Structures are given as C-alpha cells and as structure tokens.
C-alpha cells in the first residue's frame, strides 16, 4: 500500500469518529441510544440491514471458495438466500413489539424477568462469538493488502492480527460508544455504499484485465471466454464441482437452521425493523438490505473467478486462498482505492460489530442491570452502564478472534447457537399455550444437548471416549493422480515449481548456483502451453505440454502441513463423533496397509496397527449419535451429509420439547395469565403509528376494548395466534421468493457466459 492508501484510511476513520461525536448530542435517553429514537426510514433501515448482515468474512469466504472450487464456493455465503422472503413477515414483528431489546419480549410474553436475563447472557455470548469471526476475517484480508504479516512494535516482531484487530476494535468503540445506534446507522449508510461501489468496481477492472492480457488472451477473445478457456468446467457448476463443501441436504438443513435461529439473533430487534419509523420501513429495509447482499455475493463470485483466472500462478494464493480477495484488490485497484477497499472491509466489520455492541449493551442494561442490580437506575446510569458493557462485548469478540483464528469453526458455532432460544420464540409467537416453564425446559434441553453433555459428558463418563460405536473415522488416504495438464493447472504447477526452485537456490553455496540456474522452471513458448521444469531427480529439465503431458497431483498437496509443522501425509482420519480420534499411546503412528492402483490414480491407505487402542478427543457429537439406534449408516455419508444430519435434531427436538412441555405444564395449571396473553397478542395485532404518543393512545384503546385490533386471527376461537395474511403480506412474500429464483437464475446465466 502507498501513502495515498494510508491517507484514505486515516480520513475514513476520522469521519467515523466525527459522526460519533455529532450523534452523541442526540442521545438523551435509552431509546435514543439503543434505538435511535425509532426514527429511521427505508434508506437507513436498508443499509442497517445490509451493514449488520455483511461482514468482512463474506467476500473473503466467497472469494476463497470460488478461487479453489469455482462457483460452488458461493454457498459459503448464499445459504441465507431462501431465508430472505420470510423477512417480509418478521420485519413487522420487531416494530410491533415496541421493545428496546428481544430480552424485553421474553419478559413480556413469558412474564419472566429471569428468562429475559438468561436471554441477555445468551445474546452477549452470541455477539462475542459472531463478532470474533469478523475480526478474524479482516486480519486475513489485510495482510496481502498491507503487504506484511508482522509489524515491529516496541522492538518485537508481532503478527499483524494481534495489532490490527485490537486497533479496529478501539475505533468501533470510539464512534459506537459516543453516538449509539444513530451513529452506527449513519456509518452503515456510508460504509454500505462504499462496499457496493467497490465490489462493483472490481468486476469491470478484472474483466478488462482478462481481455487485455496478451498471455492469457492472445487472440483477443471476450473475458468470459478466457475464463472458460483457462478454468476447469467444474468451476462453473453451482451445486457440484471438485471438493464441494455443501450438499443439497446440508444446504436445506442450514436454511431451516438459519430461518428458525435468525429471528432470535439479538440485533434483529433493531436492524430487523424495531428501529424503523413505520412497519413498511421495517419490512422493506430488512428485505431490500439483505437482497443487496445477495447481489453483492454474485459480484464476489465473479471476482473470485477472475482472480482464479488471472492469478492461478500465484503460489501464495494456491497455498492460502483466503488471501485471494485482498490480493485481487491490490492488483486491480489503483493507489487510494486500495486504501478505500481496505477501509470498506474494515467498515463491513465495524458496521456489524457496532450494532452488536449497542444492542448487546442494551440487553445487559434492560434485562440484567435494571431488573436485578439497580431497579431505580437513572437514564444517565443506564447509558453509562451500556457504554461499559459495549466495551466488554467488543473486547470479548477480540479475545475469541485471537483464540479461535478459524472463520469456518466460528461460522459453524453460529449455525446452532441461536437455536437455544428459537423454539420458545416461534412457539410463543403463534401459540397461547406456550408456557414459561416449557420455555425454561426447552432452553435447558438445548444447553444440555448442544453444549454441556457434548463437552462435559466425556469427562464424567470416560468410557464414551473408548466406545467402539463412537470411534468411526473417515479413511486415511493419500491419493496421487496423473492429470492431463490444462491451461489452469500448468500455471499452478509452474508457480509451485518456481517457488521450490527459489527456496533451493537460497540454500545452495555459490559454487552450485550456476548449475542450479540452468534448472529454472519457465514457459518456453509464446502460447504458454509448454513449460520446462526439473525432473524428479532434479538433474535436468523436462518439457510438459497442455493437453498432452500428465503431472502427478497429490492429495494432500506437498506444501500442506500438520499443526506441528510436519508434512501432511494423508487426508481424512477425522472422527465422526469426535473432533478427532487418536491412539491412546501417542507414539503409535499409522502404517501403510494398502496401495490401490486404478488407471492413473494411486491410492495409499493408512491405518493404525490392528489392535491399537483408540480414544475420541474434543467434544462428543451427541446429536449425530441420535441416528445410531435408527440404523442410519453414518460412516457411509459424506462429510456434508453428516453435518446435515447433525443439524436435524438441533432443529427439530427443541420444538418437540417446547410443545410437549407446554401441553403438560398448561394442563397442570402452570400456563401464563390470560390477561398478559390477551394484552401481548392484542399489541402484536395492532399496527404501529409513527407518532409515539398517538401509538400509545391507540394501544391503550385496544387494551381497554374501546376499538378492535387491526389484524384478525386466521383460526378464530383457537389457541393458535396466526394472523390472517393481508394482500401486502402475500404480494411481498411472493415477490421476494421470485427474486430468490431470479438471483439463482442470474448465477446460472453468469456461469454460462462465454461457455
């Protein structure tokens, strides 16, 4: 990066802090700080939803997946797509609740301050874990853009992430603590526009680079033709492709998991519509903001394909594709714009974390501090406590980021974490019999079966770790294939050969340098279809040609290493019911038990010696073990399908527990009071009036029976509280579904361009 880039970064951050200072004058009470006075229109709500839902990990995950696997990589982010139409319905909920936090909803619906407090604790932990993923992502991207992995601080070399992550956290705290949700939304607007603009800017720059590259495109073909010419056809397969991480079953499971869980993500009380001026502002902002992200995802996919074509011969990206987005930005953007792109990626982090910080601090103040610590707290005390809590939340996110520097692991946690409180929310929203005790039982079930038993169970019952039924592992294999060189693979092969040649050059004495120089790998024809590389013995150059020569491609690759730095000899071996399965005697190592040769593929099978005592390590995958008594062949499933199976009990069982427990507790007289239920459901059927005083007067009239609620029940004289859909509900939902299919259709259209 140049000085112009650093100037852009500095100015950008100064503007954010200035916004925080300006908005600080507007915060007179809790509703101002935590909800911005509920005065935001469609534009602000749109970019609030876009900002809170778009983190720096999104272009990175999409770019990385596309660089290595092709268009199938988009599902690392696009799995949210078919949840979006339901936002048209849920956006209205949060505005009609008229609450400052979702914890307030649990207090009102279930008449339990303790349940609201439990939700507040859950929300703060969720924000720390989810926010940590954003911090990890930005460190991944910043390294190739800044051009360094370490910085010199106080005379010591420190990894970039340990300096950058806390620094960004401080900036978030500065403007977020000062300006509250209003500052967060104003910065979301600026950041969202910049993210969209720069994401779009990379595409024509990349396509132009492909068209003008005389080496990749000597005949002057169109840029999409160049991509199809250079990349394997599997790169344009949306659902399959080489090494696909997402099966259809896994995608369906994730969609349902996200649908049930997203509504209880704590920030949705604000960005989901609660901070909007009207109900239409709430639902339009939420849906449009999220569809903006889906369209941006297609842009990120296209950028990933461009990067895979242009930079297939960059050894650093072959080894660490997470850097693909940052590398492409550095190469395609001019000075100044690079700094702005990095600022926008930082902004994507900040626009999410600032909302989490403010809503999380609201949870602590409203549902823990005031009810249980200081019931007579003044507005000033509440605001101060909120700012202190926000600092703790951001600090916790930074801590999780530095301890778990693995975005996929962080993302996997979020798939199920929100399901802990999901069933009480959904069932309580639509069924009067849903009871407080049933909600507690459901939360307890989720905590037991999702976390406590998997984590503590093996420590209390060590026999689980050595139970043969739970010691299944994926086969340990080293696969070596002879593959015909393609235009893409020849560049990757040459890049790795050149890197190996340079590394060896640095170790040789001066007397051997001249002989080694004769073995330098390179293209030897203008069309870049023939390379000369050292033979296996390293004694002479051999020629390899696209479409004729074959190279040996190993899995795992030669440069892959284990956590201890040793070369990775096999893939697989992961435990199916544990994080990993290892021998009790750590000195025992796997041995080669079989070598299979089928055509050009040689598969070497590794196994531990027969009779080796094995044990599971890490957390026990209890929810996957549910399928063993049912006779499901867990070992015969792909990794993606096993992940899908593991999600199924986490999705279904909490609802079954909640419904059954509600029937039992209601029959025993432990249901909620009719007065509280009547008041709650009447409120949820009463449309919001933008003026707060008029809205409160309307509510009081509905409560008193002086006027009817605006909405009517779909099933009158029943315990079910489904509301009869309006024309706006139906039209908006149908249009949203059609938009989803249009986005998928656009993805297929992009895949076919130039093919």
Which characteristics define this entry?
three-stranded antiparallel sheet, globular, Sodium/glucose cotransporter, about 750 residues, alpha+beta, four-stranded antiparallel sheet, 28 helices, about 10% strand
Quick recap of the structure?
This protein is of the alpha+beta class.
Largest sheet strand order: 7-3-10-9
- Large-scale geometry: globular
Quaternary organisation: single chain
> CATH superfamily name of the largest domain?
Sodium/glucose cotransporter
- In percent, how helical is the residue content? 55-70%
Q: Over all CA atoms, what is the radius of gyration?
A: 28 Å
CATH top-level class of the largest domain = Mainly Alpha
Describe the structure.
The protein is an alpha+beta fold. The protein folds into three domains: about 5-25 and about 40-420 and about 735-750, Up-down Bundle (Sodium/glucose cotransporter); about 425-470 and about 635-720, no CATH class; about 470-625, no CATH class. It contains 28 helices and eleven strands. The chain has helices spanning about 5-25, 30-35, 40-55, 55-70, 75-80, 85-95, 100-110, 115-145, 160-210, 225-230, 250-260, 270, 280-310, 315-320, 325-330, 335-375, 380-405, 405-415, 420-430, 435-460, 465, 485-505, 515, 620-625, 640-665, 675-685, 690-705, 725-750, and strands at about 150-155, 155-160, 475-485, 520-525, 530-535, 540-545, 550-555, 580-585, 590-600, 600-605, 615. The strands form four sheets. A four-stranded antiparallel sheet has the order 7-3-10-9, with no helix packed on it. Strands 4-5-6 form a three-stranded antiparallel sheet, covered by helices on one side. Helix 9 packs across helix 13 and helix 9 (about 160-210) crosses helix 17.
């Amino acid at each position: 990066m140049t000085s112009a880039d650093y100037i852009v970064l500095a100015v950008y951050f100064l503007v954010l802090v200035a916004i925080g200072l300006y908005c600080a004058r507007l915060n007179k009470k809790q509703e101002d700080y935590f909800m911005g006075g509920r005065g935001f229109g469609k534009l602000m709500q749109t970019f609030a939803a876009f900002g809170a839902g778009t983190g720096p990990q999104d272009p990175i995950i999409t770019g990385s997946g596309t660089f290595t696997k092709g268009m199938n990589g988009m599902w690392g982010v696009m799995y949210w797509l078919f949840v979006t139409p339901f936002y048209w319905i849920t956006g209205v909920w949060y505005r009609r609740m008229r609450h400052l936090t979702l914890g307030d909803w649990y207090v009102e619906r279930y008449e339990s301050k303790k349940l609201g407090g439990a939700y507040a604790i859950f929300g703060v932990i969720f924000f720390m874990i989810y926010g940590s993923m954003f911090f990890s992502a930005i460190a991944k991207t910043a390294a190739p853009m800044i051009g360094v992995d370490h910085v010199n601080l106080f005379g010591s070399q420190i990894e970039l992430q340990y300096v950058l992550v806390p620094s960004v956290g401080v900036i978030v705290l500065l403007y977020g603590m000062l300006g509250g949700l209003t500052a967060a939304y104003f910065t979301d607007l600026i950041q969202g526009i910049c993210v969209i603009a720069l994401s779009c800017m990379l595409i024509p720059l990349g396509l132009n680079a492909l068209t003008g590259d005389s080496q990749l495109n000597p005949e002057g073909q169109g840029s999409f033709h160049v991509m199809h010419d250079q990349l394997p056809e599997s790169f344009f397969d949306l659902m399959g492709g080489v090494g696909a991480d997402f099966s259809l079953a896994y995608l369906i499971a994730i969609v349902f998991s996200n649908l049930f869980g997203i509504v209880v993500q704590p920030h949705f009380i604000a960005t989901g519509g609660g901070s909007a001026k009207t109900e239409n502002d709430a639902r339009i902002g939420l849906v449009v903001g999220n569809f903006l992200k889906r369209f941006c995802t297609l842009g990120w996919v296209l950028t990933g394909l461009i990067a895979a074509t242009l930079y297939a011969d960059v050894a650093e990206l072959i080894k660490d594709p997470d850097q693909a987005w940052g590398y492409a930005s550095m190469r395609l953007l001019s000075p100044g714009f690079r700094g702005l792109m990095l600022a926008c990626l930082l902004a994507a982090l900040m626009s999410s974390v600032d909302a989490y910080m403010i809503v999380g601090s609201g949870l602590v103040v409203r549902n823990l501090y005031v009810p249980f610590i200081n019931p007579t707290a003044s507005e000033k005390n509440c605001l101060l406590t909120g700012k202190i809590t926000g600092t703790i939340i951001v600090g916790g996110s930074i801590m999780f980021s530095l301890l778990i520097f693995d975005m996929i692991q962080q993302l996997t946690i979020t798939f199920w974490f929100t399901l802990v409180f999901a069933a009480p929310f959904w069932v309580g929203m639509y069924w009067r019999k849903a009871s407080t005790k049933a909600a507690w039982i459901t939360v307890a079930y989720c905590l037991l079966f999702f976390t406590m038993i998997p984590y503590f169970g093996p420590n209390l019952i060590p026999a689980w770790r050595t139970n043969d039924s739970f010691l299944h592992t994926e086969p340990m294999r080293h696969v070596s294939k002879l593959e015909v060189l393609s235009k893409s693979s020849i560049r990757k092969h040459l890049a790795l050969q050149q890197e190996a040649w340079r590394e060896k050059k640095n170790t040789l004495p001066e007397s051997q340098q001249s002989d080694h120089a004769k073995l330098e790998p390179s293209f030897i024809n203008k069309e870049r279809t023939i390379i000369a590389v050292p033979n296996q013995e390293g004694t002479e150059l051999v020629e390899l040609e696209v479409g004729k020569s074959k190279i040996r491609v190993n899995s795992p690759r030669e440069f892959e290493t284990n956590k201890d730095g040793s070369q990775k000899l096999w893939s697989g071996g992961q435990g199916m019911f544990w994080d990993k399965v290892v021998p009790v005697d750590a000195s025992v190592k796997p041995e080669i038990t079989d070598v299979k040769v089928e055509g050009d593929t040689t598969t070497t099978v590794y196994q531990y010696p027969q009779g080796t005592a094995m044990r599971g390590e890490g957390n026990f995958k209890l929810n996957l073990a549910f399928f063993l008594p049912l006779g499901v062949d867990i070992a015969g499933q792909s990794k993606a399908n096993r992940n899908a199976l593991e999600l199924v009990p986490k999705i279904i069982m909490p609802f079954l527990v909640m419904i059954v427990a509600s029937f039992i507790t209601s029959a025993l007289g432990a249901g909620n009071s009719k007065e509280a239920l009547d008041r709650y459901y009447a409120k949820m059927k009463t449309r919001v009036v933008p003026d707060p005083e008029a809205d409160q007067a309307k509510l009081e009239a509905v409560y008193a029976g002086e006027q009817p609620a605006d909405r009517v029940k779909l099933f009158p004289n029943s315990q079910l509280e489904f509301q009869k859909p309006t024309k706006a509900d139906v039209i908006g939902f149908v249009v949203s579904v059609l938009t989803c299919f249009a986005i998928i259709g656009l993805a297929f259209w992009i895949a076919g361009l130039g093919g």
